[in-house]
Here is the input.
Amino acid sequence: MCREADEFPAFFTPRADDALFIDCGANIGVTMLECKVRWPHAKIICFEPDPFAFASLQRNVDVNDLPGVRCIEAAVSDCDGQATFYGDLAPTADGRGNSLNAGWAERPGSTSRTVACRRLSPLIADQQIDFLKLDIEGSEQAVLQEIAHQLPQIHAIYVEVHETPATLAENSVDAITQQLTAAGFTVDAQQRDYEFALPPHLAQWQATARPTQTQLLCWR
Here is the structure.
């Protein structure tokens, strides 16, 4: 994401200085910080379930004294409550791929813990959302279905779709693209196939699970 900062989000221009962003899968806040540099008056709601990443996210907001940023320690899902969160969970861990989706996140050496889950629909309510980012490691389709009736209120979306052959029935680029196109978005798909996308210790998992990541840039 840092490598792509010069282009992010090239397909989006906010309607006003106080644009409303929702960042799902905020991690330590790279997207949040980039948005606040570009649009200092933007209001941003960040979701991050990994407790260690969340601590860094909140610290980045605090030490930079950023107004208008709200951080919520929860996974975005299609239901409220609690769920099992899988992945590399430790203060110095590589958290890429941590997910509610066991088919995506259960890997050699992974662990799990219970985290809070939140639906987006009550948060969105009747608000106009300028930009929604979904980078939630395999739960993108479920969340978009949960807010299907509110998609007309959203002006631009970035979705990173995480697929494996075993999880296509519940999370696929084709299904998500069809839903967003039907909701009036223009959708540009870009494959993420970078040599630095995964660390070396996940090479065996990559060969077995055959994961793919596709970026969907969606605008009206």
Remarks:
- The longest strand covers residues 111-118.
- The CA atoms of residues 78 and 167 lie 17 Å apart.
